[in-house]
TrEMBL record:
One Pfam family here: Folate_carrier
Record carries keyword Transmembrane helix: yes
Family: Belongs to the reduced folate carrier (RFC) transporter (TC 2.A.48) family.
Parts of the chain that traverse the membrane: 7-27, 57-76, 83-101, 113-133, 145-166, 172-192, 278-295, 315-337, 344-362, 368-392, 404-426, 441-462
Main location: membrane
UniProt-recorded name of the protein: Thiamine transporter 1
Highest taxon in the source lineage: Eukaryota
Keyword Transport: yes
Upper taxonomic lineage: Eukaryota, Metazoa, Chordata, Craniata, Vertebrata
GO CC list: plasma membrane
Species in which this protein is naturally found: Microcaecilia unicolor
InterPro entries listed in its UniProt record: Folate_carrier, MFS_trans_sf, ThTr-1
Gene field: SLC19A2
Length: 479
């Protein structure tokens, strides 16, 4: 115990897991081949047709991500994060190994399934750090981890573009580099300390996390509060596993514990979404994320139709890097935006959704690759700005367990909607529409989102005005 106290007192116990997690995030996102995935599959290396890639292969990722999300969410907490991070590393390696050597539609569909596993287990990466550092360092270590992934993705995109355009490397060689980076990330993950606690299944008696939402105000999500004393709790754990033993539970006790966790999650779900502001931001999160996934998944296919990579030089890597950097700038600027989101949030979301819809529509109708690139950069930047605002509004004062639950539910709803769109619009067993028609539908989808929030914002403003008039009328009658 004294050794643990000393570690906490020195403030250095969080450095090792944070550094290792940042290294893992950096190398797992250092994928120079990813901006060129569609040209690679359509090119001589795989020799697949556009219909096979867009209508038969890409939908598999959406389906597998949806099916795996909830069980992975529970397994992440039950197995205490690290095993799922290792699973993600293995899945990345299998994905890129198959990308190099798999042949045929069925094999590449299996590749997409493993990529779905890797994507679904991303929750383990972003929640691991909260089990091994103090609450006071949550914001700092979160920024470090997200910055590491952002840096890895940006550097990978730039490196891929330089190697293709300047050094004339083949797309196969880029995938070799990506596989090497995945292997380095996997090796790094082995050295992560194994957490001894988690948010739901492995709590200790001295971690009294609140199960009540206090003081919900219909006009402000920030009225959701932590349990008093939450900020002062010790959540660091010894890096030496032998210093702390997990209680051995019988099968019956483990089953009862599992059912109790599910019951608590359901109660928390009902309480969280009874708050109208939180529900509003969550609806926007789910709807917009669904459309965002569809656009980024098939944007390379659109660019390939506008300007085939076999006939001209492409700049997919540069576009991905620029859009990521501008998105990061937009995210940074959020901290300086002074706006009453409880009052004007819905109307602002509506206006920005119109801008996103316009960007997608221009990307689809103006058959110029540079216009497509510029529209894509605008689309990603605006989305990253808004999703950051939504994230903050939802999570500002939720406890960590509610934070994980709400974002998990929102992501699941987004994937469910995306699966329906994919099944109807994209999949060859559905309509199997061509890429240009798909993007017209996506533009219309965001236009519908804009209309929904415009009407909701107008109704909210009218209600607030009526309440204000009623208060003034009462004040006049009382005086």
């Amino acid at each position: 115990m004294s050794r643990r106290k000393a570690m906490l007192g020195s403030g250095s116990g969080w450095i090792l897991p944070t550094v290792l997690l940042c290294l893992y995030g950096f190398f797992s996102n250092l994928r120079p081949s990813e901006p060129f995935l569609t040209p690679y599959l359509l090119g001589p290396d795989k020799n697949l047709t556009e219909r096979q890639v867009f209508n038969e292969i890409y939908p598999v990722w959406t389906y597998s991500y949806l099916v795996l999300l909830f069980p992975v969410f529970l397994a992440t907490d039950y197995l205490r994060y690290k095993p799922l991070i290792l699973l993600q590393g293995i899945s990345f390696i299998v994905t890129w190994f198959m990308l190099l050597y798999a042949e045929g539609v069925l094999a590449v569909q299996f590749l997409e399934f493993f990529y779905g596993v890797a994507t679904a287990t991303d929750i383990a990466y972003y929640s691991y750090i909260y089990s091994v550092v103090d609450v006071s360092r949550y914001q700092k270590v979160t920024s470090y981890c997200r910055s590491a992934t952002l840096a890895g993705y940006t550097i990978g995109s730039v490196a891929g573009q330089i190697l293709v355009s300047v050094a004339n490397w083949s797309l196969f060689s880029l995938n070799v580099i990506s596989l090497t980076c995945m292997s380095v990330a996997f090796a790094t993950s082995w050295f992560l300390p194994m957490p001894q606690k988690s948010l739901f299944f492995h709590q200790r008696s001295n971690y009294p996390i609140s199960k009540e939402i206090k003081g919900i105000n219909a006009g402000n999500v920030s009225d959701l509060k932590y349990e008093p004393g939450w900020e002062d709790m010790e959540v660091n754990i010894p890096l030496n596993k032998t210093e702390c033993k997990m209680d051995k539970l019988s099968v019956q006790e483990q089953t009862a514990n599992f059912l109790e966790v599910l019951k608590v999650l359901w109660q928390d779900f009902l309480q969280c979404y009874s708050s109208r502001p939180l529900l509003c931001w969550s609806v926007w999160w789910a709807l917009s994320t669904c459309g965002y996934f569809q656009v980024i998944n098939y944007s390379q296919g659109l660019w390939e139709k506008v300007m085939p990579s076999q006939n001209s030089e492409i700049y997919n890597g540069s576009v991905e890097a620029v859009s990521t950097l501008l998105g990061a700038v937009a995210v940074f600027a959020v901290g300086y935006v002074k706006l009453s989101w409880s009052t004007w949030g819905e109307l602002a979301l509506s206006m920005f959704a119109i801008l996103i819809a316009a960007a997608v529509y221009v990307m689809d109708t103006v058959r110029n690759i540079w216009v497509c690139y510029a529209s894509y950069v605008l689309f990603r930047s605006v989305y990253m700005l808004l999703i950051t605002i939504a994230t903050f509004q939802i999570a500002a004062n939720l406890s960590m367990e509610r934070y994980a639950l709400v974002f998990g539910v929102n992501t699941f709803i987004a994937l469910l909607l995306q699966t329906l769109i994919t099944l109807i619009v994209v999949d060859s067993s559905g309509l199997g529409l061509d890429i240009f028609t798909q993007f017209k539908i996506y533009a219309g989808y965001f236009a519908v989102i804009a209309l929904i929030f415009l009407l909701s914002g107008i109704c909210s403003s009218i209600r607030k005005y009526q309440r204000h008039e009623e208060i003034q009328a009462r004040s006049s009658s009382d005086s």
